[in-house]
Design a protein that fits this description.
Length: 457
Amino acid sequence: MTAAPVAPPLPTTGLPPAAGAAIPLSVRLGWATGSLGTVTVLTTTSMIFLFYMTTVLGMAAALAGALLFAAKAFDAAIAPAMGRWSDRAATRWGRRRPFLLAGALVSGLAFLLLFTPPVLSGPALVAWMLAGLMLLALGYTLFNVPYLAMPAEMTESPQERTALLSFRVAFVAVGGAVVGFAPRIAAGLGGDRAAWAATGALLGAFAAVAMGVAFLATAGARATAGPPTRSAERLSAVLANRPFLRLLLAKILQLVGLASLQASVLFLVVQVLGLSEGVVGVYVALSTVAMLASMPLWVALGRRLPKARLLVLACLGYAAVKLSFLLAGPGEPEGLVLVRGALGGLFSGGVLLMGQSLLPDAIDWDCRRTGIRREGLYAGAYSLVEKASMALGPLVVGSLLQASGFDPAAARAGEVPAGTMGVYLGAAVLPALLYGLSALPLLRFRLDEPATPARGG
């Protein structure tokens, strides 16, 4: 094995480089506000659209799941190119920030189109929804790939990144709570197409404004610039970064499990347990409160214990909470559902914070070895697997519901539908299994290991 090259000085723009410099509070808050937008797009796609497309628009569950999968597959395919584009961009606003603004505008427009379809049916409705979902996927990627690349540039301190990402996790929790109340808002407005159109407009405006704030607030953030690299070098860099690959494998398993849960939770709470849409909102709100309350604990633990080990602990705890949904049935006390929400929030806080904090650490591992700034490359690769993984949730759940005999007509009429086995598989079994399996690659995560020798290129 050859010795790692000596890293040349890393070019920067914006604030002068300082390994342990604190990120200003205004920048932390402003950058993290963008997560309100990304989680709104992500959670609406994974939790709301399958329910909306089947029970409101009348689509078959498998077809709706397939459309969501196709849009996410498109999203995944363009993510690496977006990372390379933001790595090479050179504008007066920096190489990342212009994409944040573009993503905000495109995402807001896509929400309007998706929640206000004309009165269509058959192939015409399918084409409209697919086009809208692909436009939303484009807006999300325009924003999220450069956005994820920024923490590795904003500071060189792993502890400071953990503190920065704790703000992101807090805003992710708040954004998830906002989306969690969307079905209750729509139901309160009548639950018909007009009600969902108004709800969708609110969600789109919320996402676009949050993304725009991130663009404005990061004008003075520390940024870097790096030389472009050839395609073979880019691929070799990712394949040689074993910490990044192990984190990536764990995230794939977690995100498929999360997408499965989110696509199933409305069906479980409303149509299996017989509770109201408002319970979903309270469930998400309690999860949010618990997640926010747990942040100081996880940040303190992250300063004293290996972050990868803490992530393993959080994954196993989260898996146990979701598996307990197998014990829930019609007549389930509302309080037990809400207790699960609070416990899930406690552990999901650790999963989000430690996972997000390890990502810029793994990216910086490559920068320290080579002296090349290619955060966008890694953010694009991470975003690719994020999109592909989250796409599988609605596809799998839609297929499970279809195979188990789920009847959208019965659901629209307020009846308890057949197909509850598919709901339990999507809401409890798959999330618990996949989060548990994600602990395996994390047990071998190390930031002091040598690189895998690159092949070819």
